[in-house]
Design a protein that fits this description.
Layout lengths: L1 E5 L5 E2 H4 L6 H7 L5 E5 L4 E7 L10 E4 L5 E3 L5 E5 L6 E6 L2 E7 L6 E3 L4 H4 L2 E4 L2 E4 L7 E5 H4 L7 H5 L6 E5 L8 E5 L12 E4 L2 E3 L7 H5 L15 E7 L2 H4 L10 E6 L9 E12 L9 H18 L25 H5 L4 E13 L3 E13 L6 E14 L4 E15 L10 H6 L26 H6 L1 E21 L2 E20 L11 E24 L2 E24 L14 E25 L3 E12 L8 E12 L12 E15 L11 E8 L2 E8 L8 E14 L4 E13 L2 E5 L8 E5 L2 E17 L3 E18 L6 E3 L2 E3 L7 E4 L2 E4 L8 H5 L7 E3 L14 E4 L5 E11 L2 E11 L2 E3 L18 H5 L28 E3 L2 E12 L2 H6 L4 E14 L30 E10 L1
Parallel strand pairs: 2-10, 4-10, 16-19
Antiparallel strand pairs: 1-3, 4-7, 5-6, 5-8, 8-9, 11-12, 13-18, 14-15, 16-17, 18-19, 20-21, 20-53, 21-22, 22-23, 23-24, 24-25, 25-26, 26-27, 27-28, 28-29, 29-30, 30-31, 31-32, 32-35, 33-34, 35-36, 36-39, 37-38, 39-40, 40-47, 41-42, 42-43, 43-46, 44-45, 47-48, 48-51, 49-50, 51-52, 52-53
């Protein structure tokens, strides 16, 4: 059969100018200057190209035969090929942002132009309890769609967010699988309370705390609760940043809100099956070059000789140090990091998802498995995930739906915190000639045979496993009561169960003589009921939406711990075989939050926008009189580009100014009963059982509160080809929470109080540009940069509060580094002040700045020498497409922050101890006047090992975070394979880091849960360099 059609610039515009075959006269009159062509439609096979109005190919357009599951999607060239059951079949063509078309098979043409849907093209942003068009927002938000990351490889929610959202900074505790991260939005918001934003997943506010327990006792790394969420289930991430956007969440929103929306089925969608699989190998991103045995012995014995000579010690004296010798002369040195790590650690990910939608019912379901070996031998993380989202229209007035997500993670942890500074640090500190085993096969013992704990012994004699189970569930019912009036009831639950197991045999460095097992179990149950009423009305050019609601939330926690010792054999894995129970305890808690809220959105003529919101929260965490907090916000926007005076044909296609002010609160990080006195049992006095007060009450404890002012601009250029967003904010936080130390005579160590205030100010900029777009080649760029300045504006008594190597001080950033400032090296003894000379300081030792000019080194000489927070940070993404090939290059950067290399203190001590040494430090030490002014002499002396800027380094970096090359099979090939689409790819992650930092990775902070001590590197496992190959299939 032959089809006649009209060609317009090599295209057919179906929605605007399609000509039916029964109207040749009309066609001739209207388009007399246009040519006609013939296009042959075979009996069953159809093919062609789908483009937009500018002729650019549309990728991923769904084409299917109506009433069947027979369909396909377009490839990177916009091409498709489909076999029809008959020539009269109806073809449905659908694509997000474009009008859906229905055509008979004999109406198809070689090139189809889809017509934009003005309503669908408006980008939607998920805000509290609603969805709004981005162009109508008055608050500050950042958004990330799944389509933005579909060409990159991500394995967790925080990986998706990092570097892609302005104002959002993510720091890793380590590179261990499932390891903890710190997510901060617009800087640090609290000293003692939580700095984590509120995560809302499909309307469920979830906790991001790690409720495992053994990690705190034996050093297993803190786990990242976000690692339980399958990132392939995520449809979009919307970050609410200013108070206008977050105040609707009141007391939980001072650190921002992250709205996570998972995928759902769509109306009229054919059944689509997606299958994805990937496999990769991981390795350490760099090596720290260590001194060999000869250099080690030279420097160590030089330090010993300097010590003995300077102190006039001779053999037989109590303090005399003997020279070290290599017990294995002529034998190769030991690479201790190599002993405890894989050369290549495997990572694999598999997932299948199904989605479909009729006029009444839509569903999405997925099943996923993720398996990642850690670089340390016994470390492994596995995740099993299952999700189902179902929506059903009961009638025009009633809609219901349910979402259920089940996940399980198994994390075989490794010692990281309390076993010294961690197994990684302890291993690199071993001497180069040390070995893990004696000649008879027994372990070398740390502190006896070798200087540090034996990493092989630790790994072999320990069994550590954490299992997490999580259920996220939500059910909703919406009722359209009247025209424009809708009621919604939402019931949600977030249930987590954690089991930490730790077995130490009798041969473990920290084990009991007959072994011990610790079993810790905890459960958290978070239940939420939301009732909302929404009314929407349009009166000529005026429109408004009013939202009112009532919410109730209850969180219950329970935990139990038991420790058994004295096992008859190391073969027993359960506590019931223990000879004695060393300890057993249970604990629990509960807190409730009751809230009412209201929001009003108004607009006039699509030019003037206004939003007002207010929320009142009542929390059981506070005492009477402080339980309720009120959090209002107000914001407005002016869409200048819609004014009559604004030129319509200029380069600016959209221009909007925004301004907002509001208040939010923070109750996270406060214990359930911190405002009350607590008593514990188990105390005995004079033969009588009793209880003792363990926590001092503070009935005056109240919310941390933040007020935030934001001014922003949204700009689109060249018909939305370039979009720009800018924001400037000032955020003041008062009534900061802090565990204030108390004098021992009180009988208590500390009390939680509101002690001060802080300010964060910053500027955010992001731009998205479609640089080149044509049939064969496209290039898109996304760039964001943020700068945030933080300072404490008041403290109780206005006195500085030292915290380890940091300080809290008015006028300075939180967690500022507070230590001695290195001012070079003494080049001769005449330079050394008399008081220091009397203490043994000589030429070649570190010269510290004498702040009080007393010629001595005392705590009064400590000063603020750096900050852990960057001056600016951000991300850069470039996406290229050529034919069926795609290339994504993703970079992240951070500039201006300092990192204190705590974990390098031992290997940079230049012979002070008998630890391994960094080659660069050992070889370039001071050996005489003028030889070096930054590395001290070899000497056993505590003077050179004081906390100082000697170990403080610039933490700035620029990373090639992800480079992915993909290829999409052409449609004529996928048709032969009976699949809709197939893409294969190769990806490299953490490929290259540009930084002057001497450690493994500057992008690290082991204390992610403590803002007071940020920016310290304990030499934990760095983020790993990973090479991955994989494929995505669509049926």
């Amino acid at each position: 059969m032959k089809l006649r059609y009209l060609q317009i610039a090599s295209s057919i515009c179906i929605t605007c100018c399609h000509l039916g075959m029964s109207h040749p006269a009309l066609a001739s009159q209207t388009y007399s200057k246009m040519l006609t062509k013939e296009y042959v439609v075979t009996k069953k096979n159809v093919n062609g190209t789908i483009v937009d109005k500018d002729g650019n190919p549309l990728i991923g357009v769904t084409i299917f035969e109506k009433g069947t599951d027979n369909g396909c999607i377009t490839d990177f060239n916009g091409q498709y090929q489909l076999s029809l059951s008959n020539r009269d079949a109806v073809i449905v063509i659908s694509y997000v942002g474009y009008k859906t078309q229905e055509l008979k098979g004999d109406q198809l043409v070689e090139k189809i132009v889809l017509e934009e849907d003005a309503v669908a093209l408006d980008e939607l942003v998920v805000v509290g309890y609603a969805v709004q068009k981005k162009k109508e927002l008055t608050g500050s938000t950042s958004s990330l769609k799944a389509s933005d990351k579909k060409l990159s490889v991500t394995t967790s929610l925080d990986q998706m967010m990092q570097g892609n959202l302005s104002g959002v900074n993510i720091t890793n505790a380590s590179g261990m699988p499932g390891g903890a991260v710190r997510v901060s939005i617009r800087g640090v918001g609290s000293i003692n309370g939580s700095n984590e934003p509120l995560f809302v997943i499909d309307g469920i506010p979830v906790s991001n705390s790690d409720n495992s327990g053994v990690n705190g006792r034996f050093g297993g790394s803190v786990q990242n609760p976000l690692s339980m969420l399958n990132p392939n289930d995520i449809e979009s991430i919307d970050v609410l940043k200013d108070a206008a956007a977050t105040a609707i969440y009141g007391s939980r929103a001072t650190n921002g809100v992250v709205m996570v929306t998972t995928k759902r089925g769509k109306k009229g969608q054919r059944t689509i099956v997606n299958l994805s699989a990937s496999y990769g190998l991981q390795s350490l991103p760099k090596e720290i070059e260590m001194a060999d045995s000869d250099l080690y012995l030279t420097v160590r014995n030089e330090a010993v000789n300097n010590y003995n000579t300077q102190n006039n010690l001779k053999p037989g004296d109590n303090l005399y140090k003997t020279l070290e010798v290599n017990p294995r002369p002529g034998q190769p040195d030991t690479d201790w990091i190599d002993l405890i790590t894989h050369d290549q650690a495997a990572v694999q990910n598999y997932e299948v998802s199904v989605s479909s939608g009729s006029e009444k019912t839509r569903f999405y379901s997925s099943l996923g498995y993720f398996d990642q070996e850690g670089i340390i031998l016994t470390n492994r993380f596995r995740r099993y995930s299952l999700r189902t989202n179902v929506d059903h229209d009961i009638s025009n007035a009633f809609q219901t739906g349910v979402s259920i997500a089940l996940s399980k993670t198994i994390n075989n942890r490794v010692p990281n915190d309390n076993v010294g500074n961690g197994i990684f640090t302890r291993s690199i500190e071993q001497r180069p000639f040390d070995v893990p085993f004696k000649e008879d096969g027994r372990y070398m013992i740390g502190g006896v045979d070798i200087p540090r704990h034996n990493g092989i012994q630790v790994l072999n004699e320990q069994k550590s496993k954490n299992e997490w189970y999580r259920v996220l569930a939500n059910a909703y019912l919406t009722i359209k009561l009247l025209e424009g009036l809708e009621y919604k009831l939402s019931l949600s639950g977030d249930i987590r169960y954690s089991n930490d197991y730790l077995k130490l045999t009798k041969d473990h460095p920290y084990g009991s003589p007959k072994g011990e097992i610790t079993d810790y179990r905890s459960m958290m149950q978070n239940y939420l009921i939301d009732n909302t009423l929404t009314y929407t009305k349009q009166i000529k050019d005026f429109n408004f939406t009013a939202l009112g609601g009532y919410s109730m939330q209850e969180i219950n926690t329970d935990a139990s711990s038991i420790v058994g010792k004295d096992f008859p054999s190391s073969q027993f894995d359960y506590i019931n075989a223990a000879g004695r129970i060393n300890s057993a305890s249970t604990t629990g808690g509960k807190n409730r939050l009751i809230s009412t809220f209201f929001r009003l959105n108004m607009g006039y003529a699509d030019r003037y926008l206004f939003t007002f919101s207010i929320r009142a929260d009542g929390s059981s965490k506070f005492a009477d009189g402080n339980q309720w907090g009120t959090f209002p916000s107000v914001s407005g926007a002016w869409r200048i580009s819609n004014e009559s005076f604004f030129p319509k044909d200029g380069i600016i296609s959209d221009l909007k100014l925004r301004a907002s002010w509001g208040m939010t609160g923070n109750q996270e990080g406060i214990g359930n009963y911190d405002s009350r006195s607590l008593a514990n049992g188990g105390h005995n006095y004079n033969g009588q059982d009793g209880i003792a007060i363990t926590t001092l009450a503070n009935p005056d404890l109240k919310w941390e509160k933040s007020d935030q002012t934001n001014i922003g601009l949204d700009l689109s250029l060249f018909n939305d080809r370039v979009t720009v967003g800018m924001d400037y904010f000032i955020k003041n936080t008062k009534d900061l929470l802090y565990d204030r130390p108390l004098h021992t005579t009180t009988g208590f160590s500390s009390i939680t109080q509101n002690i001060g205030s802080m300010r964060n100010t910053g500027f955010e900029f992001n731009v998205e540009s479609h640089n080149i777009m044509n049939d064969r080649f496209s290039w898109d760029t996304q760039f964001n940069i943020s700068t945030i300045k933080n300072k404490l504006t008041s403290l109780i008594d206005e006195k500085p509060i030292p915290v380890g190597n940091h300080v809290l001080q008015v006028g300075q950033p939180i967690g500022s580094f507070y230590m001695y400032k290195m001012d070079g090296i003494y080049q001769d003894n005449q330079e050394v002040p008399e008081k220091l000379y009397a203490k043994g300081v000589r030429a070649g030792d570190i010269k510290y700045a004498d702040k009080d000019n007393d010629g001595d080194l005392t705590p009064a000489d400590k000063e603020i020498v750096g900050k852990p927070l960057p001056d600016f940070f951000g991300g850069l993404t470039n996406r290229f497409r050529y034919g069926n090939f795609d290339l994504t290059i993703f970079n992240t950067f951070s500039v201006g922050n300092d990192v204190y290399a705590t974990g390098m203190g031992g290997i940079d001590a230049v012979g002070h101890n008998n630890y391994g040494m960094r080659k660069d430090i050992a070889a370039n030490r001071w050996t005489g006047p003028g030889t070096n002014n930054s590395i001290p002499r070899a000497m056993i002396s505590t003077h050179n090992t004081q906390a100082s800027t000697y170990l403080l380094h610039d933490g700035s970096y620029f990373k090639f975070k992800d480079v992915t090359l993909g290829y999409t099979l052409p449609s004529n090939l996928t048709q032969k394979l009976n699949i809709s689409n197939m893409r294969v790819y190769l990806s490299a992650q953490n490929l290259w880091t540009i930084s002057s930092y001497p450690g493994y990775d500057p992008e690290v902070s082991y204390s992610v849960n403590n803002s007071k001590t940020m920016g310290e590197d304990a030499m934990t496992v760095p983020q790993l360099r990973t090479f991955v190959c994989g494929f995505n299939l669509t049926f």
